Amino acid sequence: MARKLFIVARGNHHLFRTLSNALRGELDVEVIYDRRKASGPVRHEGDERRIRWDIEERIHTIGYAVVRPRDDRRSDSNIRWP
């Protein structure tokens, strides 16, 4: 399982290819497109159960976000920004 997940804004093919090429040698990294339905930081309760507003905002503003799996032994956030 990837230890770092790069979530790229849907449709941003250039950034997706760039990150995929740059990180292809990293065994603990996976680059994926954002699969959520919302197309911006719209905050409607119940629209999308997977939305994390901090991730959504980062994807919307810079085109991607980096997410690490949550370690239940730690109490800090699982989000790490480059």
Mean pLDDT: 78
What class would the helix/strand composition place it in?
Answer: alpha+beta
Q: List how many beta strands DSSP finds.
A: 3
**Helical proportion, percent range:** 25-40%
Summarize the structure.
The protein is an alpha+beta fold.
Question: If you had to describe this structure to a student in words, what would you say it looks like?
Answer:
By secondary structure, the chain is α+β, with helices and mostly antiparallel strands. It has one domain (4-67). It has helices at 13-23, 53-62, and strands at 4-8, 29-33, 64-67. It has a 3-stranded mixed β-sheet.
Features:
single chain, 82 residues, alpha+beta, three-stranded mixed sheet, 2 helices, 26% helix, globular
Helices and strands in order, then pairings?
Layout: E1 4-8, H1 13-23, E2 29-33, H2 53-62, E3 64-67
Parallel strand pairs: 1-2
Antiparallel strand pairs: 1-3
